[in-house]
Amino acid sequence: MAKRCWSGSNAGRGAVLQLAIILPTLNESGNLAPLITRIEGALGSQGWEVLIVDDDSEDGTADEARALALNDPRVRVIQRIGRRGLASAAIEGFCATAAPYVAVMDADHQHDPALLKGMLESLQKGDADICVASRFAPGASTKGWDEPERERISGFANRVARWITRTELSDPMSGYFMLESRRARELAPRLSGIGFKILLDILATSATAMRVKEFPLNFAARREGTSKLDRAVAFDFLAGVYDKTLGQVIPTRFALFGTVGALGVLVHMAVLALLYRIADEGFALSQAIAVLTAMSFNFWLNNWLTYRDRRLKGASAFVRGWVGFCLACSVGALANVAVATLLEGAGVLWVGAALAGILVGSVWNYALSSRFVWGRF
After folding, report:
1. Among candidates 358, 264, 247, 359, which has minimal Cα distance to 302?
2. Which domains are present in the chain?
3. With a threshold of 0.85, does the pTM exceed it?
């Protein structure tokens, strides 16, 4: 549960609180104390607070943060139960501080705290609406990153992000930025809170183009631990793009579920064609096997992508989740098979019959699996 901590309004004892630094964390216990030391070296001893928003880490990150807070009133903690994701953690941080300015940065030491002072001064002078630490601005470096594939993906994502945000920015996918807390809170109700790219969300949600000032970042290697990001981060990016383009028409989570379902259709049709057209099995049996195969595929991919913030881990949890998914979708599957068999028997082409069955079961599958398998109805 979230721990009620010192409010931070007298941060630094005698200094006026100016800046809150939000650190979304997941298994970062060994990185916290050294990072706070670096932040103090960059900003001095007063006028700032660190707000650690932890996604119930297995390595005791929240407990480590509380231990630090006992001796340092500049440190505060929010331990989140049942909620995951950098973007939503940042939004909770925006709403949990009294500081007039707020920064978001990683706790893994890839983001250099030395940039904080200059970013804060620029905002205080009115030089910009938002300051961004860029991995690709002139003078920046990614030598410490040493992940060429991720760099190429970031380059492509940045081009798409610039189109969505209407902002000429070298690194709109950056996770290190600073803006006024008031503005962040004004935007918060309209932010999607999905995935990792909160800066993209902020820039795209703002009704007017924000004035941006970039600070070249020497992107370093992680101090310890492993990255919280995996290949599913590309799916998060697509989710963010969708939310900012068509999200008002169809809910984003359902669209992600539907995207996985579309891939499941290919699996379904391949199995059905193999059994019905090639192996010459009966249509009803072939359709039933194809449904079960596609259902299993959809469960696996949804668990990895759509519900990655609630991902079921470990063999027993995965098997229980698969069984629950199949049970939750059983009525939809029965309707799928019944409708498809009825239409095929009435002379509808087998492809069309199968697609109609899939459509009937899809909404049911989404509603029940969201509620009973991943608990996110």
Report:
1. 264
2. 19-231 (3.90.550.10), 252-372 (no CATH)
3. no
